[in-house]
Design brief:
about 110 residues; 3 helices; elongated
């Protein structure tokens, strides 16, 4: 379990230095992995709070991982575009359809 933001950074490293099987992961994959992991931590904390609603440490942890998740999503979105259509900030052109679809290699 991730206990603090510093533990998270320590276990994950930066996008540029995360290594799997001797090769550096692609930045996009690494950033998406960060979104997945922090998102999982948010859901895990939510489920715990469902059964322990008065646990202040759990609430603090939930706030911390929620912030980390939002930061991960924001960083990914800034570099690669929105993860969900509602996150699209388009006002004149619907660019959501411009990125490759999963069958075109757009899925991470």
């Amino acid at each position: 379990m991730i206990n603090s933001a510093s533990d998270y950074r320590t276990t994950r490293g930066g996008a540029e230095d995360y290594v799997v099987s001797g090769q550096a992961m692609d930045t996009r994959e690494s950033m998406m992995q960060q979104v997945y992991q922090t998102g999982f931590a948010v859901v895990d904390a939510q489920l715990f709070l469902d059964t322990h609603p008065c646990d202040q440490a759990a609430m603090a942890y939930y706030q911390q991982v929620s912030s980390m998740y939002q930061d991960a999503v924001s960083a990914f979105t800034a570099q690669f575009g929105p993860l969900d259509a509602p996150d699209s900030n388009d006002t004149t052109y619907w660019s959501w359809i411009s990125d490759p679809w999963p069958w075109e290699g757009g899925c991470v």
